[in-house]
Write a structure and sequence with these properties.
It holds the Pfam family UvrD_C_2. The chain is of the alpha/beta class. It is built from 27 helices and 20 strands. The structure holds adenosine-5'-triphosphate.
Length: 701
Amino acid sequence: MHSTGLGKNNNLVMTDPARLLIILDDWARAGWIRWLDTEFAVFLHRQVPDASPALLLAAALTSHQNGHGHVCLDIHYCLSEPGTALSLPPESPVRQPELTPQQLLAQLDSAQWTQALHNALLVDDKPGTDMQAEAGNQPLVLDSSSGRPLLYLRRFWRYEQTLAHSIQQRLLSRPDVDDRLLSSCIKTIFEQLSQNTAAELTRDCDWQRIACGLAVRQRFSIITGGPGTGKTTTVVKVLAVLQALQHAAGQPPLRIRLAAPTGKAAARLSTSITSQLARHDLQGVPGDVSTVHRLLGPVRNSRFFRHHAGNPLPVDVVVVDEASMVDVELMALLLDALPAQARLVLLGDKDQLASVEAGAVLGSLCQRAALAHYWQQTSDWITSVTGQHVPDHLINNDGTGLDQAITMLRYSHRFGAVPGIGDLAQAVNSSADANTLNAFFDGQYSELKRLHIGNTRDTAFEQLIADLDNGYGHYLSLARQPPATEASSLSWDTWALDILQAHGHFQLLAALRKGEFGVEGLNQRIESILRSAGLLPPWQERAFDTDDARSPAPTQAAWYPGRPVMVTRNDYNLDLMNGDIGITLPYPLPVPGGTELRLRVAFTAGDKQKPVRWVLPSRLQSVETVFAMTVHKSQGSEFTHTALILPQHENPVLTRELIYTGITRAVRQFTLIDNNPKVLPGAVASSVFRTSGLLHAISGS
Ligand SMILES: Nc1ncnc2c1ncn2[C@@H]1O[C@H](COP(=O)(O)OP(=O)(O)OP(=O)(O)O)[C@@H](O)[C@H]1O
């Protein structure tokens, strides 16, 4: 076993930078932090050799926090609850370090640590405002303006300031809107498009109308709500109202762009809006949705985009769906590229897992959404324009300007026939206890099932996976009935589209990556289950070259018909986005003397002329098998039947947000697979706390 060689001198670590670096090295070897985090501290030490160990430790932990989705290190939180704040121990540590971060942090107090951060060469401790942000050149920024010392890498601090400044500006400069005209347009559009379900008519307050009014009234607004609360339905009405106002004013139609963070989420929004457009004549409301990256225009082989403050997007309105998945950098770049006059409407579920990258922007902005905090004058305006009355307990004259721009939709229309899924998600969200959670699976809801399995060799698990109606057997049976080799390319495309659609029928989600209950172990196990069931070809180990089955190519060993893969990195050359799912299938290709079937990966292309893109497997640089998918990767997707498998032991990765996100991916049926009765309630009791100074930067000053 590796030893740091420090022996019992651990109490000297905080007095000697060299010893601290040895400890950081040990943490990286133990898999508790990344090498990048350790290297960052080493780099700073080389630049400024007299930087204190406490500062180097803070720098490494700030970098570690960025890797866990936080924009900064919250000094107080880190000292008071180091395990939770730093998500340590990690999901699958290599080993226990000689001295854990928790033990080392116990040697520090907040005043001492903050004091050690005052180093003029490395830390900017008077960062001022966004406008002066370029002035400092220290790599770290200590922002104490909220009363809590927060340590940032300068890059992230600048993104947050840019965002805060831009949102503030938009909130301050409202567009000119004639309230009487707006009121009449809302009335007309809602009457024209309303489904008028019994549920809708019996509720006291129609939040969708309120959301519509507030989104039209401002240049920045957020519509948040759980699954099926009508975010998409509402935004279509917002856009229809905006175009109607333009029309009434004799102005040309607004230039509207719709975007989502992943290709999959973009396709889902496009499908939803297109189906509404098919039912109603909505002039000027587009059905095309692009990814946010594509909207900004990526410049090949660089981190830059064509659109930025110097070359703004030619738009009047931008709508971003699934905004909880947009990280602080991308959101800052988007706001930067948006003309000052344009409206931005963010849609998303504030309770879902945040982006994997640093910065839970939507979650931070919507922290106060449940209680609305509308001013009396906002409430009066809402009543006069939309006819709705805001309940008294949601009115608060101490609300912020940002509060006035946020609407939370509170009634789900999605789960009418399958209320168990929505009710369970809500119970998870409100931290229900073990008994309440268990009661959901006692048979009262046919849409909720629970499998207790000790390991993945359990027959019940095997049956679930291979099931022909509700498991992977569904799409794989279709995949085993290809058209005739000589059939038209349209027949092959139609077949592939049916399979891609059938694949969305069932998905197994996992919380972890490693181990028997992590996606890696599960993918192997599921492959072998499906092979034994005769649903996948038997030649697992034999290499199957993608263009010639007779010449094995070791690097391509994993390709076989039926293999589902997920793209893990945007590939602009192939026009595939992170999160896109393809299925490996045979495809007829001309060869001398006839036609032969070769393996290709079929992706939905979203193009009526060419609905399927058939990609040569070897061209796919970053893909992984996706029989099991992490809950993180499942965001922005939904599946008719979703199964969530939990590990045998509690783990810091398991949080309320993760369980909620997993459950809400289910449309008709949800199956929980677990064994240890403590794991579900333990996860539901622990919530992700994303440290960020964004809310204070917008509203606190
Ligand atoms: N006011 C309403 N009355 C009746 N049905 C509604 C209403 N609003 C939305 N729906 C229906 O509820 C379903 C979900 O709506 P929608 O897709 O707009 O919700 P969402 O919040 O965008 O969902 P998701 O979180 O899944 O993206 C749709 O079938 C829609 O037609």
